[in-house]
């Protein structure tokens, strides 16, 4: 899920194009630059900030200030708008409406309101860069595997046509698009070592366990090799390293030809983490990703960029191991598939900005 969508869901704020580009720049370093040693060794939180080597505590304090300065104003705006009866429907509004004892003072927050404010902030933190990374992977896959793009567009043309954009109700009728979404999360998972931001997120085993002859004692720290699981040739076959939506599908005799293979375990239960710390935003993330992918495929062609001599630039699968498993910067051309598709997109944009 991308930044703009998350912001709208949390605070009901529709952003103009300039705001879209600049909002949250100050806060981003604190959200995504790195995890702190305390995430892996919680006991370090007891070290005083003046202690030699405890610079991470000073850093955390300064980030706390930036974070607060970013997430407090939109929260206060919703709180004020709720009192005036002008608030847009959003997560913060719904939570505030459920409070038994809302704090009527505009400049004060009750403990419950602090929790709502910080939960919305955490959604921004978890949901913005991850969603854009997944979308970049999708665009790169469409460049490198044009066959998959073409087959998905054929399905969309048949089921949706040119008069409207796809909607969630269409999901079950678009098995190829669903398989393509699965393949994006499998082929280049956003968090390969269940790594979130720069460090892996360790998980703790809460009971003794035996796995294939290995004894894993209670309280052991385990790092899940998500990349390995999702590229396992025993499950995905010798072409596990290729982008191939059809691996999730079975050919059937019906009009449209494909259905999801019930014997293939979908990748969402792996690529969004495990256990109690599994991504709480995964349903929101997957459904907004599906909508973005199906709308883009429906209305645009994604093709290689053209160099100064008029030749297509060969796309390369190159990833940087930064905060997430993100494609290295690449160029491409994204153009409406036809005049009718362009008009459809313009109408959707006008409706959105109204
Ligand atoms: C494509 C989009 C996304 C991906 C690939 C993704 C992936 C992940 C992964 C791998 C984890 C670590 C899970 C673990 O430790 O086992 C995680 C945690 C988390 N995610 Fe997501 N996520 C996405 C979108 C979102 C969204 C939209 C939200 C909120 C609206 C969100 C909120 C969070 C939060 C709060 C955590 C920390 C949970 C905890 O530590 O208890 N994520 N995510």
UniProtKB/TrEMBL annotation:
Molecular function terms, GO-annotated: heme binding; iron ion binding; monooxygenase activity; oxidoreductase activity, acting on paired donors, with incorporation or reduction of molecular oxygen
Entry binding sites for heme: 279
Pfam families: p450
UniProt keyword list: Heme, Iron, Metal-binding, Monooxygenase, Oxidoreductase
Biological or metabolic pathway of the protein: Secondary metabolite biosynthesis
Top-level division of the source organism's lineage: Eukaryota
Obligatory cofactor(s): heme
InterPro entries in UniProt: Cyt_P450 (IPR001128), Cyt_P450_CS (IPR017972), Cyt_P450_E_grp-I (IPR002401), Cyt_P450_sf (IPR036396), Cytochrome_P450_fung (IPR050364)
PROSITE patterns linked: CYTOCHROME_P450 (PS00086)
Family: Belongs to the cytochrome P450 family.
Stated name of the protein: Cytochrome P450
Source organism per UniProt: Gymnopus androsaceus JB14
């Amino acid at each position: 899920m991308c930044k703009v969508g998350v912001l709208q869901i949390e605070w009901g704020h529709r952003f103009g194009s300039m705001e879209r580009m600049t909002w949250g720049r100050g806060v981003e370093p604190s959200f995504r630059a790195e995890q702190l040693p305390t995430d892996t060794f919680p006991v370090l939180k007891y070290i005083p900030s003046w202690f030699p080597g405890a610079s991470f505590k000073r850093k955390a304090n300064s980030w706390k200030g930036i974070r607060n300065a970013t997430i407090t104003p939109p929260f206060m705006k919703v709180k004020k708008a709720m009192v005036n009866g002008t608030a847009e429907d959003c997560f913060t509004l719904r939570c505030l409406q459920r409070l038994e004892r809302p704090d009527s003072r505009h400049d004060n927050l009750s403990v419950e309101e602090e929790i709502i404010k910080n939960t919305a902030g955490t959604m921004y933190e978890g949901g913005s860069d991850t969603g854009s990374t997944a979308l970049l992977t999708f665009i790169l896959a469409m460049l490198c595997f044009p066959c998959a793009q073409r087959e998905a567009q054929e399905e969309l043309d048949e089921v949706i046509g040119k008069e409207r954009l796809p909607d969630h109700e269409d999901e079950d009728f678009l098995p190829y698009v669903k398989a393509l979404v699965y393949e994006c999360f499998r082929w280049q998972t956003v968090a390969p070592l269940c790594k979130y931001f720069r460090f892996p997120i360790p998980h703790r085993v809460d009971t003794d366990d035996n796995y294939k002859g290995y004894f894993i004692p209670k309280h052991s720290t385990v790092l899940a090799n998500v990349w390995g699981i999702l590229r396992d040739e025993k499950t995905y076959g010798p072409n596990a390293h290729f982008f191939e939506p059809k691996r999730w599908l079975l050919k059937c005799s019906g009009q449209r030809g494909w259905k999801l293979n019930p014997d293939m375990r979908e990748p969402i239960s792996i690529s969004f983490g495990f256990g109690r710390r599994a991504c709480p935003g995964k349903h929101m993330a997957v459904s907004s990703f599906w909508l973005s992918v199906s709308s883009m495929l429906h209305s645009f062609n994604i093709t290689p960029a053209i160099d100064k001599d008029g030749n297509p630039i060969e796309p390369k699968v190159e990833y940087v191991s930064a905060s997430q498993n993100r494609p290295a910067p690449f160029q491409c051309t994204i153009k409406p598939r036809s005049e009718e598709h362009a008009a459809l997109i313009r109408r959707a944009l006008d409706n959105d900005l109204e």
